[in-house]
Amino acid sequence: MSTSTESTTPGTGPAPKRDRTHYLYIAVIIAVVLGVAVGIVAPDFAKSLKPIGSSFVDLIKMMISPIIFCTIVLGIGAVKQAAKVGKVGAIALGYFLTMSTAALGIGLIVGNIVQPGSGLVLPDEPYEVTESEGLDLIPDTLVSPLVGTSVLQTLFVALLVGFAVQALGTKGEPILRGIGYFQKLVFKILTMILWLAPIGAFGAIAAVVGETGWAAVGALLQIMLGFYLTCALFVFGILGLVLRLGAGINIFTLLKYLGREFLLIVSTSSSESALPRLIAKMEHLGVSRPVVGITVPTGYSFNLDGTAIYLTMASLFIATAQGSPLALGEQISLLVFMIVASKGAAGVTGAGLATLAAGLQSHRPDLVDGVGLIVGIDRFMSEARAVTNFAGNAVATVLIGHWVGEFDRAKADRVFAGQDPFDEATMVDDDHDPADSAPPSLTKDTAGSQT
């Protein structure tokens, strides 16, 4: 999903199209408010609306297997692609894995300290785990996971297919392109489903408030506030420290330089919308084009720090709210799954919700229905999620450029000081797509000129 960022001043280009998801955001807010009101005023009627929220969750669950399959196979393709460029690709992948793991870890730590959802015990039907559940890794056929409900089997087959396609070399490239097109179809269907989010959120929130009263409202505010604070701690604490020690740059200076991009992200709830501008601005800052061309597109699939924090804290919230807290071993197992499952996921609104459902489906199927509670506040957290993802990729680009000697520090100082401002008139939205971006060669050529 790409949003035009061309200037709207006369003579500089056409005005950008209005993002229709703006209306979806407003509709979700209205639905949440109405759901709370109905739950308080008519609790018995509100409880009867629970199937509405459950039906929306079922639609999300329907998309789990194809999303996991596509993102894992294409994620393996991105690893292979980055590996071709040697040192930069290896450093980038190592850094992305480390920071995403740190984000998941900090989400678990803060989640266990804050314990979001505590005091809110949702009535739920008892769930019995069958003897083989969670252990049946090998599917009956190669394609059966795509029409089944076992996330672990889907993950297993996706890994096999991904590595098999890579082993085919150039003959496997058409297969990857085909899966890439299929992924676009899957996310298009997911986008269509998300337009039903206001209805699903209304039913889920109304039912929960009808059953628990104001305790549900307080719990939702608690998880939202905890998530915002955790994202801020990660960006200004962890990323800020790494950027200062790794490149000697103040995090506030870098974020100020990217101010317009953050506004664009907040308005669209997706870091994808600012991808072309991040590429242009990182080059203007002094990071060489080859490094930017490798790091930014790969980071958009592998360096989703905000999504990682969201996945862990939301999982803990759902488990606690349903009166079935996750044991430490389950938390660690879920963390490992999220590290794998979130790789290769595009920065598309709603992908985080589907990945959350996939993680719970694979570890604790009894908790999946709790995703309906998150649907009502997912849009409220999507901005912080996207902003954190974007900040993480901006920091990564500067750090990796500095570490491989492809960062012009003198130019960066001039840019930060306002002596070499970014020319908005030269900014052209080329409709970049991480799935379509191939890492360029690190050879010195005419492509190294700055935008």
TrEMBL record:
Location of region: Disordered: 423-451
Keyword Transmembrane helix: yes
PROSITE patterns: NA_DICARBOXYL_SYMP_1 (PS00713)
Domain of life: Bacteria
Keywords tagged on the record: Membrane, Transmembrane, Transmembrane helix
Composition bias type Acidic residues, residue spans: 423-433
Listed transmembrane segments: 23-42, 62-79, 91-114, 142-165, 185-208, 214-243, 308-328, 334-357
Record InterPro entries: Na-dicarboxylate_symporter (IPR001991), Na-dicarboxylate_symporter_CS (IPR018107)
Full protein name: Cation:dicarboxylase symporter family transporter
Organism: Pseudonocardia abyssalis
